Amino acid sequence: MDQKILTSKQYFKLLLLVYGVMLVAQVGTGTVFFFLRSTQSKSMPNEVTLGQLFGYLVPCAAVILPLVGILLAKKTIKALRINDLLSDKLRKYQSALIFKYAFFEGATFFSLVAYFITGELLHLGVAGALVMVFLTQLPTRNRVFNEVPLSTLDESKLNNPDAEVAAIPVKD
To answer: Is a pLDDT exceeding 90 seen at residue 134?
Structure first.
């Protein structure tokens, strides 16, 4: 399998692209579910029994899933060592971010499905709150500098937009 070398600028664009796609997926799904539920409200009965169950599950998932994602990402990032290769550190950091974002997305989708099934606006509100918290997780250059153990050489490479910093596998 071939590899594509990424510059610092390309790496940060890739992180933003992944983040943006996951954000659009959450907002887009919420919009579609809201539109479908509001236009089909007469033909979609509200599920009372499931509403009671989701009344407990949605808040629990909204708190637990993002926390688990954050803690697992921190654990992965904490395992990085300052003398690891920069490419390895950045690849593991990117994986940890995707993992963390997936937990946020899972909680949001669970809340949205609960809203779609039950018609409870509270579940839609929980999904909206999760998206707002997700917005605070924007991957920035400063966040990478603060979270990843970087040597002075690594920092100088990341500050140079044209420096080659990571390699990603690509299929032919």
So the answer is: yes
- Cα separation, 19 vs 87, whole angstroms: 20
Query: What amino acid is encoded at 106 in this protein?
Result: G
CA neighbor of 95 nearest in space, from 139, 131, 157:
139
108-124 residue pLDDT tens: 999 999 998 888 899 99
Q: How far is CA 151 from the centre of its chain?
A: 27
User: How far, rounded to the nearest angstrom, does the alpha carbon of residue 80 sit from its chain's CA centroid?
Assistant: 20
